[in-house]
Fold each of these.
Amino acid sequence: MLYLAKILPAIVLPCGLTILLLILGVTLRKRALSVAALMLLWLSSMSLVSDPLMRAAEGWAVGRPAASAPNAAAIVVLSGMLHPAPSPAGHDEWSDGVDRFEAGIALAKAGKAPLLVFTGGWLPWHADARPEGEVLRERAIERGVEAGRIAVTGSVRNTEEEARAVAALLRGHDAAGSRPLILLVTSAFHMRRAGLLFTRAGLSVTPFPVDFQTSAAPFSFMKVLPGADALQNTETAVREFYGYLYYRLIKRN
């Protein structure tokens, strides 16, 4: 199911649809389908299109300093920041979303919660890799966070499993109240779906979005030129829309 969840959405994302339209255009000898494929690829690769899509996925949120966050029972930092580097020592490097880690450290040092929780992100196609939370725990200690204030969940493979694991962990730590308040730290585009799942898991969520993918740059001619970064943002935003709708409308439990 995990593999299907990663593969199936690709069919209806811009890249997958472009390939499908090209195949149909060649097979059926329909030039209009091939032209539509190229137009879809071009539009998806323009910042003029990807920026508003990404901002919508981010819920038009804005970044804020750690000092502005309320106090909570725990700071929860979601996985998705590391990848195993091509190294004989199995060294892990930052891939994306390092702002999640930095925000978690800042919130912990600001005294916003007694507990800093990292999730144990792990994927079967990186079977030999350590769960991400274990690596982040070591790096947080190196950054001056007391070891006794850090907790790591068991291995989890997606956001739904992260939510359930964190809820179980906090119950084990006797967090205050039947619905512990957490400061949820994740990429802004991922926050809407993550907040839904953590709320369903029985937690009260205060979002602390980071890792914003667009800038406040004014319009320029460069925004209509195709680019890989814009295409990636379009794909990420559309995938998040699909994921949120899936959990909101189909998988409600």
Amino acid sequence: MLPQHLLKKLIRTALAEDIGAGDVTTAAALRGDETGCARATAKEELVVAGIDVFGEVFLMHDPALKFTRRLGDGEKAGKGDLLAEVSGRLASILTAERVALNLLQRMCGIATLTRRYVERVEGTRAKILDTRKTAPGLRFLDKYAVRAGGGCNHRFALYDGILIKDNHILAAGGIAPAVRRVRARIPHTLKIEVEVKNLPELEEALAAGADAIMLDNMDIAGMAAAVKRAGGKVPLEASGNMTLERVREAAETGVDLISVGALTHSAPAADISLNLVQTEDRPQ
């Protein structure tokens, strides 16, 4: 479920940014009382995500509009498939459409790319994870879209998970002192993940008592060796340069998790159109 207070705040801000003092084009071109229907249609194959976010934009702008979902989040849509319909006052539809489409296209793009990664590693133990490389202010939508695509979420933010990265290790004076200090200061409910770049660092992290280990930018041979050395003692996460071409090979090394920053920072927006299909009262 999406946090409704965050969603409504985001939509209010986005609408205010786009509309400002008013939609001058719509106000000048229409009388204001025209009514009709618009349909959101997939112009390419995609995985749906954010369909109710799309609808909420219209309803927050004009509660008198009617929104009808035709496909749900996580469902696949083919080219030409109907995703949703919005009906009512045309001026309201035209004013809110860009914000609604921007959010829907971004979320569907993320879900679609995520599904490709998930399908690429089918039959292995590896789960596909997102990262914190999200658009500021849109993280809760980006991560929701990853779940709609069949992926899993890494920590949401800095406050809900320990990940000791290379700069933490350098600042703390090494893996062992970093883990020791963190362990002494956090509640027992938090696990400690440590980023390593090679097998000697993996050995240090295991000896320090890391609960999980991230293999950062290791080659395939290094990942396989790390899996063998860890022997299932802790979960191993592969990260760095995880392309669609490389992810299957990485998964076959036996790692438990594969994090892919591209899911949220490089997913192309899905191609979706919103077109009027009828007007009950055409402007004169």
Amino acid sequence: MHLPMGVALSVLSLLAAGGETQAQQAPNVRAYRPNPAEEDWSFLRQSSKTDFWDPLKYISLGREDCYLTLSGEIRFRPEGFRIRGPEGSPSLIDTYLLQRYLFGADLHLSRRFRIFTEVQSGIVSGKLQSPRPTDRNSVDLHQGFFEWRRPFNEKRVFGIRAGRQEVTIGSSRLISASAGMNVKRSFDGAVLYYLTDSWRFHAVAAKLVSISKGVFDDAPDHAQTFWGVAASRKSFLFKQGEFAVSYLGVDRAQITYAQARGRDQRHTVGVKWSGSGTRGDLNYDAILQWGAFNGAPVRAWAFSTETGYRFVNTLWKPRISLRADIASGDKDATAANLQSFNPLFPGNSYAGAVGLFGPTNLTDLTPGVTAVLTRSLVLGFEAPSYWRTSSGDGLYATDQRVLLLPTIGQGKYVGTNPGIVAIWHATAHLQFQGAISRFLPGRFLEKTFVANGFGFYSITALYRF
């Protein structure tokens, strides 16, 4: 499962985190980030080492601005599904353990040049009927890039990263490492950036890194290439947040929709506006796509919103929110033209507490409530309901596999998936997260194997240093 957006905002209000690159991080902040390549521990050169792991975060190599930082992440996540069988038949039960290990080294050779490497291992054990491609990867290079930076002054910097890396450009709904997966996503390519105190400009060209189950055998997938540019600035009307515009192009040699399988060449333009204040917050994305699928025209679109309000003067500071997403689906599988939305390389923002459905041909409405019970404990509840946007298209997974063809059932209503999530930040390094949800199927699923619904749970222990 992944962290629901509402809960994430509650957690972010408790933590000192922010920025996209080392150039923009505030000094003297011990921030252990999902991507350790974005951390900056240079302040330890002149500060006392007070944390147990501080000696590994700044290892002097004898010259000014020449040092080594070591990092790591260990995650254990038992999960379970119980799919209720028809009357008189047993339920289908899956219980399994996901493990993820990440260990990195950040070598700074000067103020301008560094080399970052990170190794990843993803393991799954137990009973799992249909393992996902992102569940297992014995051990492989997750990141390995060099970065050259040219600071012009304290507020402006130009740089390039080249090699294997996590990439986020424009909206994370479109290009993301997808930390909710057991094996995180990375790309082989180059990113150019120019940063000022108000604006950020990025350009990227890269290939997705394919996941193989062996040892150090992951290679760039030459059948999946993307490129793009993005510009963003600080959000207007809010002290925190951003306004961004982006263009992304993708060329996939083979991709499957309910209509057919073939080559998808697609152009995507997106506008994002996010912001967070003392009480209110929002996160809006508008996306337009065009291109060609098997030589026929493509026209697709998506619109995503989340709006929240926090009662700051009330016990537990409850936040109420409403998320609404809608993405286009194909109108007619017998016609060559395609209207199915392609989410590119998405995170789990669309998928609710379980992360069951991808955004293609999906409309959802999700009310939610979160409460800050203590400074380190957050409790959240959400109840997403799902509909197919077009009855001529099917239902898709978060990794864009076709889950169900449009002919499997009638109507657009897919179901409702209420869930509860608790997050406890035990220390700066250790986090626990528990979730339980129940899926209540709609008319479209009434003749499928999940017609009686299913339950899901997960317990996550995450340690970073």
